[in-house]
Amino acid sequence: MTARGTTTVVTAMALAASLAGASLMVRRLDHLRAGTTEETALYVPSPQILQRMSLGYTGLLADIYWTRAVQYFGTQHHARSMQYKLLEPLLDIATTLDPHLTVAYEFGATFLAENPPEGAGDPDAAVRLVERGIRENPLEWRLYYNLGFIHYFERKDYAAAAAAFERGSRVPGALPWMKVMAAQMSQHAGDMHTARLLWASLFQTTESEDIRVNAAKHLRALQVDEEVSILENLVSVFRERSGRWPATWAEMVAAGYLRSVPLDPSRKPYRLAPDGRVLVQVPKDLPFITQGLPQRQEPSNGPQVESK
Amino acid sequence: MTARIAHVAFNTFREAVRDRVLYNLIFFALLLVGAALLFGQISIGIARIVLINLGLTAISIFGVVIAIFIGIGLVSKEMEKKTLYTILSRPVRRWEFIAGKFGGLAWTLVVNTFLMAIGFFGALLLLAHRFERADGWLLVAIYFIILEFVVVTALALLFSTFSSPVLSAVMALALFVIGTFAEDLRAFAAMSQGATRVLATLAAYVVPNFASLNVISSVAHGQPIAASLILYNTAYSLFYTAASLFAAILVFEYRNLK
To answer: How far away is chain A from the Cα of B187, in angstroms, using its nearest Cα?
Structure first.
């Protein structure tokens, strides 16, 4: 090999080793300084200053901040964190830089509203965000829908929910069921049928796969809550008539109370506890349920509606 | 006269292409593809908006950087290489030289922008599979970006007639940044009193107004651009460019080239 060839090979190897070493150090530093990437967002907490610093390219900066909000939420959610303190400032920056970034209001409000660890557990902040979104984008009927949703499920303020759906139904282009929602809120606020109607309409009309998946989980949770109530009633009737709790579902089937062993939406049989309670087998497969949980397990952020 | 200006312009264009200016197109294409893939993975619901914001912002920033860093050398480099004396010893007048240089760089930027726009629309088609009617406003945003380049090129050329390349770059960049704050400067002038008000108002009208030329965020959401804005932005850019070029010609006419 010529002297030049030797130099090339040695230098190339040294370059690769240096890059590998630098990458390794970056990983170590990231591990050492976990969480600092998100914290830097607070170094420039003012959306107005960022607006000036963007030199007019606010759209791109808003996209970056929205992505940071999504990443921050994802990281905290993955870690089952109970705190999301940077979520609201990040959303505020993103929506101030680009007031027409409707996706940030829609998803951001959901992130803010749901109870920890599913979300920040701050429905008032979510309402503020969506109200601002409506001020900036009064013709986006979906934002009124989001607002009604938060008032209904997270704040239990059914009058405010009805008002939000009613306002939204007057926006040109709003789907007809917005009017139905407004009427439903006024007459049957808090019942399970209304909750199912809300989640089903969201499931059918959303363009986002993430929202559709979330709506499907909530619908499954409502189904479990309803089925557990019905099954526990049947078990109580069995006890009244036979003087004892049924030991297995087979006994209930044999006595004609059920046609077959009842399955939950994840296709696993419900569990029959010795004290007559009906439980799901794997609660973590069915997020948001409020019924069918082991006694000591707190319900996650569920639909929390009154069962009729 | 026109033939002489065209000749200088053509040579300026050819020199810019020889300087491998159009290499930025490769970087631009990689940036668009990479960003579209990345944001599609790590964000929610904004893949199309990001592509538009990033694409138009990149076209704008690349163009401004090219306008400044080539524009500042248009006159000084010719003087440094002594080629200016060869040109001016021929029947080419000084103002024709300035006009030709400006035309050549402006044309380089238009070609560069045209090629980037093709890549940009290609990426958009790849992502969305079809164009929407509102995408027509993207062309208006690109037109405004070209107007921005024309103004920046004229300013860089003006600085190039009397200053060193480094100082010209600093001044042109500073004016570009200040120009994005032009609306704030006018608001500040309206709030101040006395001599400050006079000076601030003067400064607000002397610096270029780039704020109204940036409609990237609006078109990313498919919002229409008013015809009056298109008209006034065009007229403003032409007036401002003409003023900068006339100033450059005046300075260059009286500059001692010995």
So the answer is: 14
